[in-house]
Design goal:
Structural class: alpha/beta
Radius of gyration: 19 Å
Number of helices: 12
Strand order of the largest sheet: 3-2-1-4
Shape: globular
Order of helices and strands: HEHEHHEHHEHHHHEEHHE
CATH superfamily of the largest domain: HUPs
Largest sheet: 4 strands, parallel
Oligomer: single chain
CATH architecture of the largest domain: 3-Layer(aba) Sandwich
Distance between the termini: 27 Å
Strand content: 5-15%
Number of domains: 2
Low-confidence stretches: none
């Protein structure tokens, strides 16, 4: 199916819904979905729901909340929903299906909020590539009846980036993001200290020129981390002195060993 046809199908689908609430993260997919819904339905028929939690770095939260203004939209009903996941026992214990439990909690809150505002349809930015991966959160989406119009219209990640660039969305080349808890191995308790450490580590590596990096904790050794870089950053990593600079940063932070994930992101 051509990209033009996918865009046409998406707009027709959105128009058939009339009024929608969108689970918005500020990432590539939900930004494209929000733009499409605003253009197809108008700001008065779109409710934007954003989960404000300790699982997202403050700069990413600010970027998400400034999205309408950055893209020239006024009058958008943008509603942050403050959540406290560290009070959820099934989340803090960090089981294999943590993402399912978290998504179910968050989206239930979104459903309650949208019903309060008179909206009946909740959508999110799941795309066809997501269906190919192991994502426990997808079960929660199905259980709650959340619409996935990007899947229905046939959009994969590359499609979304391509059209987002044409639409001049500043998120088109933004690295894929996920909550800070994804850097903590299953079975290792999720705590404020660990989340703060991860945020500090990633901010430090970012300052060295590696945006979109991930720093994952080791499941057994507290003084060891696994560094994951974007694939196009490996040449920069190989530059003279860069490896040593990264090592010094982590050593100052109390990390004895840094393992590099050669698969990249």
């Amino acid at each position: 199916m051509s990209l033009d046809k996918k865009i046409e199908n998406l707009h027709l689908l959105l128009q058939s819904y009339s009024r929608v609430a969108i689970a918005f993260s500020g990432g590539v997919d939900s930004s494209f979905l929000l733009k499409s819904a605003l253009d197809a339905l108008g700001a008065g028929n779109v409710l934007v729901l954003f989960a404000r939690t300790c699982l997202v770095r403050p700069n990413e939260q600010q970027r998400a909340e400034s999205w309408p203004a950055r893209h020239g939209y006024s009058g958008v009903d943008f509603q942050p929903v403050d959540l406290q996941p560290l009070t959820w026992k099934e989340f803090v214990s960090n089981p294999e299906r943590r993402c399912y439990h978290c998504k179910l909690r968050v989206y239930k809150e979104f459903v309650d909020k949208m019903h309060e505002r008179g909206f009946q349809i909740l959508m999110d930015g799941t795309n066809t590539d997501d269906l190919k991966e192991r994502r426990p959160g997808l079960q929660a989406i199905r259980e709650l009846g959340v619409k996935t119009p990007l899947v229905e219209a046939g959009f994969d990640k590359n499609d979304i980036r391509t059209v987002s660039r044409e639409l001049q969305l500043d998120t088109w080349d933004q690295p894929s993001s996920s909550c800070l808890a994804t850097r903590i191995p299953s079975g290792l308790e999720i705590t404020t200290d660990r989340l703060d450490l991860i945020a500090d580590y990633e901010k430090g590596v970012e300052k060295l020129g590696f945006s979109g990096n991930r720093v994952r904790l080791h499941p057994l050794e507290e003084d060891t981390v696994v560094l994951q870089l974007q694939e196009n950053d490996f040449d920069r990593f190989a530059q003279p002195g860069m490896r040593q600079a990264i090592a010094r940063f982590f050593q100052k932070a109390g990390v004895r060993k840094v393992l590099l994930d050669l698969t990249g992101r």
